[in-house]
Amino acid sequence: MRAAVVAPTERKLIQIIATRTPGPPALVTDSKERTQRVRAALANQNFAIPHGRIDVAVPDGSLGHDLAVALAILLSDRSHKHLRRHGWIAWGALGLNGSITRGEGPYVGGLHSGPSVGRIWRPDDRLPGPEDDAVISLIDDIEEFWQAWDVITKLVDIEQAIFEEEPRMHT
Fold first, then answer.
1. In the chain, where the domains are located
2. Any residues with CB less than 8 A from the CB of 76 and at least 6 apart, and which?
3. Domain 2-163 - what CATH class?
4. Residue 81 in contact with residue 1, Cβ under 8 Å?
5. What contacts 24+ positions apart, CB below 8 Å, involve 15-18?
6. Which one has a higher pLDDT value, 162 or 155?
7. For 103, 121, 133, 155, which has the most beta carbons within 10 A of its beta carbon?
8. 78 torsion bin: left (phi>0), alpha (psi -120 to 50), beta (else)
């Protein structure tokens, strides 16, 4: 199972991709320190790391990618398949207790240093570029990891309510 969460850098948006495969339990990121931070933050917020081996592709060592890494890990679990979407976006540094603090902005497109979590609605098939008229919903001032996860689940609930076909009246 693969899951991706977008994170901003100073120059562009990048994808943090978590790939879960069967096998002995293992969590592998770009550094031992990030792996320990993310593992501790999830555990201290009462989240379980999915079973199997999880490899997370993190393009650089920015602490601001921690939140995106943690969310991608949880989204890689098959029990969260209904939550996987193109366009999740998140940034913020994780504390060992699951608290979230600002990233190392400034970020592309005038995005502030966060922490934030949300969804890129348009374009819906790729990362937005400078020429795109992107539509993004962001929730700011997330203080704890559980709040970030709650944003993901609530945005899916809202999407399902909006795009659910209305019942037809039979006459």
1. 2-163
2. 1, 2, 3, 18, 19, 20, 50, 54
3. alpha beta
4. yes
5. 15/57, 15/127, 16/56, 16/57, 16/58, 16/59, 16/65, 16/68, 16/69, 16/72, 17/56, 17/57, 17/72, 18/54, 18/55, 18/56, 18/57, 18/69, 18/72, 18/73, 18/75, 18/76
6. 155
7. 103
8. alpha
What is the distance between the alpha carbons of residues 58 and 16, in angstroms, rounded to a whole number? 5
CA 30, distance to chain mean position in Å, is: 16
Q: H helices then E strands: how many in the chain?
A: 3, 9
107-132 pLDDT, tens digit each: 888 888 889 999 998 887 778 877 88
Dig out the tokens for 32 from the structure: 């031992």
Show the CA angle centred on residue 17, arms to residues 84 and 67, nearest 5°. 80
**Total-model pTM:** 0.91
Task: Give the C-alpha separation, 164 to 19, whole Å.
Answer: 30
Q: Mean pLDDT for the chain? A: 90
pLDDT higher than 70, residue 169:
no
Is the confidence at residue 168, as pLDDT, over 60? no
Amino acid at 143: E
* pLDDT confidence of residue 55: 97
